[in-house]
Design a protein that fits this description.
heterodimer; A: 668 residues; alpha+beta; Dna Ligase, domain 1; nine-stranded mixed sheet; six-stranded mixed sheet; 16 helices; globular; B: 522 residues; five-stranded antiparallel sheet; 20 strands; 28% helix
Chain lengths: 668, 522
């Protein structure tokens, strides 16, 4: 008889679904990777479960992150959605903010078309002011006009974004009451993203509305196939879990759950290893994601562009750059560049032998001997090192050097691009990046980690255990939480304590409700409160955490200090609380996964690798699972899905939980 | 030099760009004026010790082009030996690689071990720099003294300490000193961030290597530009475009270019442009160069780093006494973003039969500026700068985009919810101006409509908009787009507001801006 003793984390990517299963008593860990099925996501999840030898009756908790919603949004495969806005603002999505991405090119793709086409945008006669005062009431006849229009459109979902609804949502609420039962799905901007700036709020609400029919359909199917009630959870973009019913109302929260899961797992490791500052480095085939973790918590961001459209909600500040293993290397009269063009997965790098004819970063790694020439890649194609050499040869020739030297140079430039991404996330937060540990995962992270650390001046690298199913592990390790953020614009001069207390209480109730609904006891829920503050005349706000009892003076003092630390100066100007962010959180207790049993000993292997400053060196090839003692570079440490490159003068030491710690051998 | 590691040069290129981008980040995150923080009207650059631009942010092309001269010209006035570590100079004079008085520069020499290696340069468009009219744009200005405060190079920072008398002098001459002080401190902080990064690069790679890499970056861009020009057919090409007004009796003012492509070099002669005009549409030779540099980048059809080296194969000639070299006391506020755009269009028109596939039809090549200034009870002013895009011109392979920015500018609109929360204005409408793009095989993009209801007792309005009389042109037989149209509705009567005007508004007035559509293609 199955005992429901297993906790499952799965990360459903575009190509693969990763799964990790953890036994709650024995801490036994099982990992698998199965192909994703974009057309049948629930089936893929059940197949992944079967791949670790489990089925529904074994499952206690099932947490998943997915790119399903994001992919649908990016690819434009969307349900028919309408947008209702204040009359006169029907074109808000099409106008946007005017700015173009490329300064010196005209041969660019056109601006992304609006998520909702003009004929499905409705102007509602009503008006609320910035202070929340009703300037033009919403008359019943106007709602009837809208209802009649909607009845003719045959839409599956409706987004509502009225001007200044963050200040007074009365009109949006009235619409919700009157439209109940008339439309299949309704998204209200004051619920989805109650913050000022109408374009960003409308865009986010339209995203939510368009995602809703897709999300509700597959989540309902999942609930049916995995009837484990509150144990069924979804990972969200702010790096924690949320129960299914809340996601059905706000599918937007899972839009960026994939990268967030890896970061959440990293935050857990930063806490366990007691590292105050960690930079995550997740290098894939076409993009690289980086994020800063300070004192065990990942930094938060508000807005991210998806397919050229802004999506605004509190989420982990994961910064992506368009450089990965497949990035194409070009040499022209103006110098050498890496990316942003990518060979993608088809045809892929030349060394994959699938018809790629342009040199990529992965080809440079192949030339340097870092990739296992005998390894099978995906569809059982073997690495073609000769093809990699052939595509890099023209660059080497043009520069008057050997192919190996050129390959080393290409890696150096790629690492400089990565270092720029690390710099970006650290300077935004006023942190000196060189004090950080680098946590490397993803296909290329552990391969480039040492080179990047040397470029950027980092002295420690952590390659986590289970790095292949790292995001899936993040799902499992995450806390239970829900966030709510709202524009307040409350000056601290003449502070209105009553309004502040009322708004804070509302936000706390909104953030806590989904957790209570999931059966969590109130006393288990912790509340984190952050005031987003600015000088009255500024636009960007800085997050300033606070705890009750609330003191405006203490908060002002903290803000001044934070501003000085970040920007080098502070003034005596008046301060404003722009927004409040509240997170309700129930921590998850998870035993650390047991390190994998040492693999059966294999005959020693070695091959020649090329390292900067050392040239060609005979290098030991080690199986990660067999490592017990510290290893001196040069070495290549492999597991099923990733490769750690350990150059001379570096060493790697495994810890009790299966993480590898890389440091310079000559460091004191 | 030839032994310089080509990959290290790329590493330094990334490092310099990252430093410039960090400067802009510091600015937008901590500045006060909505024009900076919402619209992003600012730019950041790093130059070598001689003032040659070598690293830049992803900012505003017209600024970045002029900034190639801003430190160079400064060094003629303030020789290197007068500069000390920890100093920063503030200035806005046209003669010093300037563009217009609103764009205030802070330049910080960066020393490493006592050696000057670079400059960090921050440019920000201040919403007001004093002068006759709030906002410092005076359409009828006869000279620059009427326009705004003129700031010669002054040490705002001396050996790391803020120079209070200089700051006080400047704040005493602007209409919103509180916001201005915050903006200026943000500019100083931005240059400080860049100084830190440059020192790190020198410490990591060696100062002499860093300097050699900067020199190589110029050479590489020069080589790329030479190769690009060599790919254009040799010949003489001529093009012209017209400002809506500014000529005698308000007639259109001509901008003319004669381009000679010879092998790897290109010669741009702008001497045939109109004489100095009697309004604020004159501009400086630096802006003429900046506009040509942008146009040359587009003509090249290539990716390259915009730096001083890319300019070497270009010669650019302006005529003393003309609208592009009017003397240092001429009024120039509008020329910065209006006349400069006419230069770009003139160059494109000269080349449109040669490389139409690299160009686009005429578009919203203007700042599209409406500035609203509200006098407050405490005698301070509240300034709202509204800058508008329109429909992009169509290209050979696609329609133009609606509601976007083109060419030398890249500023954003300000959200309605931000305007209404901060100014006595209600935005009554904000929509796409359907059908304003020109017809053709590919259509021009549509412009936008935005209307403003004045809720204050009075407001001082400035318009500074091109393409009100002369429509954005169609290319290869495509139709023109609709021109800009600005109207005032007062007591039920609708009248047109000219594209360049200062006027008073009163409570209840409705100002409506309809921005232009792009020209069609084919």
């Amino acid at each position: 008889m199955a005992q429901r003793d297993w906790d499952i984390g799965t990360d459903i990517g575009g190509t693969f679904t990763d799964i990790i299963a953890l036994h709650r008593l024995t801490a036994e860990r099982r990992i698998a990777k199965v192909p994703s099925r974009p057309a049948a996501p629930v089936r893929a999840m059940l197949e992944a479960l079967a791949a670790v030898g489990l089925s529904e009756p074994d499952v206690r908790r099932f947490v998943h992150g997915t790119t399903r919603v994001t992919n649908a949004l990016v690819e434009g495969r969307l349900p028919r959605t309408a947008l209702v806005v204040t009359a006169g603002f029907e074109d808000v999505l099409e106008i946007g903010r005017y700015r173009r991405q490329e300064l010196y090119r005209l041969d660019t793709p056109p601006k992304a078309p609006p998520l909702v086409p003009p004929e499905l945008c409705f102007g509602l006669r009503e008006r609320v002011g910035p202070d929340g005062a009703v300037q033009q009431p919403l008359e019943p006849a106007e709602i009837d006009r809208l209802a009649a229009w909607l009845a003719r459109q045959g839409v599956q979902s409706v987004a509502v974004c009225l001007l200044h609804s963050y200040a007074n949502p009365a009109h949006e609420r009235l619409l919700a009451e009157r439209l109940a039962g008339l439309v299949p799905h309704l998204s209200l901007s004051h619920e989805v993203n109650p913050e000022a700036r109408e374009y960003e709020r409308a865009s986010s609400t339209a995203f939510n509305a368009a995602a809703m029919p897709i999300a509700v359909e597959y989540l309902s199917e999942l609930e049916e196939k995995l009837p484990i009630g509150a144990g069924l959870q979804v990972f969200h973009s702010a790096g924690a879990m949320v129960p299914v019913p809340a996601v059905k109302r706000r599918p937007l929260v899972m839009a960026l759950s994939g990268p967030a899961a890896g970061v959440a797992a990293s935050a857990r490791i930063a806490q366990r290893l007691d590292r105050p500052r960690v930079l995550t480095f997740d290098m894939g085939g076409t993009t690289t994601d980086v994020c800063l973790i300070v004192d065990g918590a990942a930094e938060m961001a508000d807005t991210r562009m998806i397919g050229g459209r802004p999506l605004r909600q509190p989420m982990l500040a994961v910064h992506s750059i368009g450089a990965g293993g497949g990035s194409i290397v070009k040499l022209g009269p103006g110098g050498l560049s890496v990316g942003p063009e990518s060979a993608g997965s088809e045809p892929g790098p030349a060394c994959y032998g699938r018809g790629g004819t342009l040199p990529t970063i992965t080809d440079a790694n192949a030339v340097l001997g870092y990739l296992d020439p005998a390894a099978r890649l995906g569809d059982a194609i073997q690495l073609d090192v000769a093809a990699a050499r052939a595509v890099i040869a023209p660059i080497a020739e043009a520069l008057g050097m050997g192919v190996e030297e050129a390959a080393l140079g290409i890696i150096k430039v790629a690492n400089a691009a990565m270092a720029r991404a690390l710099r970006r996330v650290t300077v935004e937060r006023g942190v000196d990046g060189r004090d950080c540990s680098l946590l490397a995962f993803g296909g290329g992270g552990p391969m480039h980690a040492v080179g990047l650390a040397e470029t950027y001046g980092l002295s420690e690298i952590i390659v986590p255990a289970a790095s292949s199913a790292f995001s899936a592990l993040g799902c499992l390790a995450a806390d239970f939480s829900f966030l709510q953020q709202r524009t307040l614009r409350l000056p601290l001069d003449g502070f209105d304590a009553e309004v502040f207390a009322a708004r804070l209480a509302e936000l706390e109730a909104e953030a806590t409700a989904p957790l209570l609904a999931n059966g969590i006891a109130p006393e288990e829920i912790g509340i984190e409160r952050v005031a987003l503050m600015r000088y009255a005349a500024q636009s960007d706000s800085l997050p300033v955490p606070f705890t009750p009892p609330f003191s405006p003076e203490a908060l002002t003092e903290k803000f001044h200090r934070r501003h000085k630390a970040l920007f080098g100066y502070a003034t005596g100007e008046a301060c404003v609380i722009e927004s409040l962010r509240v997170e309700a959180r129930r921590p998850t207790e998870m035993a650390p996964p047991r390190a994998e049993a040492p693999a059966a000993p294999r005959p020693p292997r070695a091959r020649d690798c090329i390292f900067p400053g050392h040239g060609r060196v005979a290098t030991a090839i080690l199986a990660r699972g067999a490592l017990k003692d510290p290893v001196q570079g040069p070495a290549i440490i492999e597991d099923a899905w990733s490769t750690v490159v350990l150059p001379p003068a570096w060493q790697a030491a495994p810890d009790a939980e299966g993480n590898l710690l890389l440091t310079r051998s000559d460091a004191a | 030099m030839s032994a310089l590691d080509p990959f290290l040069v790329e590493v330094i290129r990334h490092g310099l760009s990252a430093a410039a981008e960090e400067m802009s980040l510091v600015m937008t995150r901590s500045a006060r004026s909505p024009l900076l923080r919402e619209a992003g009207d600012l730019s950041s650059a790093i130059t070598d010790a001689e003032g040659g631009l070598v690293g830049q942010g992803r900012d505003i092309p017209i600024h970045l082009g002029a900034m190639a001269y801003t430190v160079k010209e400064l060094l003629k006035r303030c020789p290197v030996e007068t500069l000390r570590e920890g100093d920063a100079l503030i200035y806005n004079l046209g003669a010093l690689g300037g563009n217009h008085l609103n764009d205030v520069k802070v330049a910080r020499p960066v020393f490493v071990d006592g050696q000057l290696v670079a400059f960090a340069l921050s440019l920000a468009h201040w919403p007001d720099v004093g002068g006759t009219w709030p906002g410092s744009y005076l359409a009828e200005a006869v000279d620059t003294f009427q326009e705004a405060m003129r700031i010669p190079p002054m040490p705002i920072l001396q050996q790391g300490a803020l120079n209070r008398p200089v700051l006080d002098f400047i704040l005493a001459n602007v209409r919103d000193p509180v916001a201005c002080e915050g903006d200026l401190l943000a500019q100083i902080a931005a240059t400080e961030a860049a100084e830190r990064r440059i020192r790190e690069l020198c410490a990591q790679h060696g100062t002499s290597v860093f300097i050699a890499c900067m020199a190589r970056l110029h050479d590489l861009s020069e080589a790329e530009m030479r190769a690009a020009i060599a790919g254009l057919p040799d010949g003489d090409y001529e093009g012209e475009d017209f400002l809506d007004d500014g000529g005698p009796g308000g007639a259109p003012a001509r901008i003319h270019v004669r381009i000679a492509i010879r092998g790897e070099e290109a010669h741009f002669d702008l001497s045939g442009s109109a004489d100095r005009v009697a309004n604020f549409c004159n501009t400086t030779p630096f802006i003429a160069r900046s506009a040509v540099a942008y146009a040359a980048r587009i003509l090249s059809g290539r990716e390259m780093q915009q730096n001083a080296g890319a300019l070497r194969p270009l010669t650019i000639v302006t005529r003393p006494g003309s609208i592009l070299e009017p003397g240092w006391n001429a009024a120039v506020a509008a020329g910065n973003h209006e006349t400069s755009m006419r230069i770009v269009d003139a160059v494109f028109r000269a080349m449109e039969h040669v490389i139409p596939e690299r160009l686009s039809a005429g578009g919203p090549a203007t700042s599209g500026l409406l500035a609203f200034a509200e006098p407050m009870a405490d005698q301070s002013w509240r300034m709202l700068y509204e800058v508008h895009g329109g429909g992009e011109g169509a290209r050979h392979d696609r329609d133009g985009s609606p509601a976007t920015r083109v060419h030398l500018t890249n500023t954003s609109n300000t959200p309605t919810e931000v305007i209404e929360a901060n100014y006595a204005i209600r935005v009554e409408q904000q929509s796409i101006r359907r059908g304003s793009g020109g017809a053709g095989k590919h259509r021009g993009g549509d412009g936008v409509v935005r209307s403003y209801r004045v809720l204050a007792e009075s407001m001082w309005l400035t318009s500074c908009v091109e393409r009100c009389k002369i429509s954005p042109y169609g290319l290869k037989g495509g139709a023109d787009g609709l021109p800009f149209r600005i109207t005032l509705t007062r007591d039920g009567v609708v009248e047109e507001i000219p594209g360049k005007k200062n006027m008073l508004l009163r409570r209840g007035d409705l100002v409506t801006m309809e921005s232009c559509g792009g020209g069609g293609f084919g």
